[in-house]
Each structure stands twice: as C-alpha cells, then as structure tokens.
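FORM 7B: Structural annotation worksheet

SECTION A. Query
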Amino acid sequence: MKKVRVSLGKKRSYDIVIGYKIASNYLEKLIKKLGLGNEAAVITNPAIHSIHRNAIKGFLKRLKANAATIKIPDRETSKSNRQVIKIIESIVKVDKGRGLFIIAFGGGVVGDTGGFVASIYKRGVPYIQIPTTLLAQVDSAIGGKVAIDLTSAKNLVGAFYQPRLVISDISILRSLPSRQIRSGLAEIIKYGIIKDKRLFKFLERNIKDILKLKRDPLEYVIYRSSKIKAAYVKADERDTKGIRAQLNFGHTIGHAIEAASRYSKLYSHGEAIAIGMIAASEIAVKMGLLKRPSLERITNLIKKGGLPTTISRGLDIKKIMKAQLYDKKIIHGVNRFILPVRIGKANIYEKIPKRLISEVIKNRCA
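SECTION B. Predicted structure
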C-alpha cells in the first residue's frame, strides 16, 4: 500500500490509501481505526453492487455494523435533489442513533452524491470514499468538493466536506470498460500539464501500458496524481486563493460541452475535459502564452490516450457558449480560464475575449 496524506489540520486531515486488493483485504481494519460508529449506509450503483455484492456484505459483517445498501443509477442525472431526498429517506430507516457513517462505493456520481448527502444529513455525518473509477480515484474522491447538478449546469449546489478516508483499490479498475479508463486518463494528463512535466513525460512513454492496466505504471500515476491533488487541496481547501482553481484546467469548456449534450452518453466527463484541455491550450497559443509545439504534444498525448480531440457536429455551438457562462469560475461577470504557459505550469487568466473562445470552439468542431 501507498499512502498520501491530505493535511488540513487535526480534524479534517485524512489518508488516501492506494494499492492492489486493499478493499477486500484491509478495508475493515482501516475503517475500525477511525472509530466511526456501528451503523453504515453504503451508497453504490447497480453495476458495482452486482460485481462486489459479496465483498460489501463481507466487510460490513466483519465491521459488525447495522447497514443499508442504497443503489442509485450510474448516470449524471442521479446527482439531483430528488435522488438526494430518496437516499436520505433510506438512511433514516437504518439510523438508530448509534453513530452512522456513509460509504460512497462507486464512481464520481456516487462519490459526489454520497458526499453531499453526508454533508447535509443531520448537519454532517462522517463518510468514506471508495472510488471505483480511475477518474474518481485521481480526482473527484479527493478534496471534499461534493455537489449535485441543476439543469443549467453541473455542481451548482454543493459544499466543501472532507471524507475521513479515501481507498483507491486499483484491482477494482479491472472491471471497468475501456472507455472509463480513458476518461480517467484525461484527468491524469491534466495533472501533468498544469503541474508535473515528469508525469507528462512518463505518460508519453507508458500510456499503452497504463491503458492495459499494468500494475506498476498504473499505481504510479494514481499515486502521483493523488499527491498533486492533495497538495492543491492543502494549499487552498475552499478554493478561495486561486490556487485550487488551477485544477479546473479544461473544465470550463469541458463542462459546457457536457451541459450542451444534456449530460448524455455522447461524452463522458473525461472525454469532454480532453477537448476542453485542447481548446484551452489553443487559446493559450493564440494569446502568445504557450508555444505551438507544446500544444502539439498535448494533442498527441490525448490522441494516444484514445480520447476525442474534436466536438461532434451534433452539438450547438451557441449552447456550448451559453453553458460556459454558468461556469463557477466566472466572478462578477468576468470569465476566468486556466491556461498552460508550458507543460508543467498553468496560470489563471481573466477577461478572455468571447470572440476568441467562440473561434476556438468552432475550430474544435469535427
């Protein structure tokens, strides 16, 4: 096992534990050390439950916890106020006042929704993240950003609420379809672009082995990505200093693509972010911030990762432009983009001309 500490002071600090088959071999020991209570609500999705049903029953039995397993659909539309109320109503049935905690056992949708429920139920109960997708292991399960969506945009209703533990078991990833692996890879590429040129070079050399889920390179990129994310969270936990905002590289246009496609299966989150990263890099080149060879390296790595580089003609550019106006990084009507200045470093820039944004989005259309 490898551990990354998210250091946020005595009460909010926690470990990210990374390794192979740690959920099946060490989970109850890790949870018992936290002393959370005797009642658990496991929030998961039907697909994960069907694969890991026996494992869930096993560790809950060993924990000797009164438990309920709550399954929610594995789609972005599950991050809704209606779903949250349904989950809470199910939790109430198991909560007998003996110390309830929540386990979010799934991908980003489960993690975001489960964490949000934990933040509001009884004004906050402990929760544990067991991310089951590559994207969640390197990004959404870390840092305490929990939220649900509105029809206008993603993650508009949310909170900062840190988990007590994150368990990234790489053996679980073997049950994923290749599209989900590629989607998570987009976030790893992001870390290389904004913070770690050595990670970027490692990806250029080893991307085929990572896509094949070879244990050593996969564990390394998850560990390195988790460490980078933890450092950003430590430096700017509540996203008020402009430091953590750098993690949103590619997300302004990426989220707009997701919203314009109505969060359908046309684009996964990572696929939309991949296009968003190329678009942001193109803006940086046109502004004279980034050299074109760096843009070409970024585009080539995204291609090698099996991720899209262009927007489907089926999407309305006007809808994408409108959706990006709802981006949370817009302050007092002023847009903010995270733009790379070289591989391994990015900065925040404001007042990007709408004409330039529109031009780049049009250039990305297939």
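SECTION C. Observations
The chain has 13 helices and eleven strands. The mean pLDDT is 92.

SECTION D. Sign-off
Analyst initials: ____
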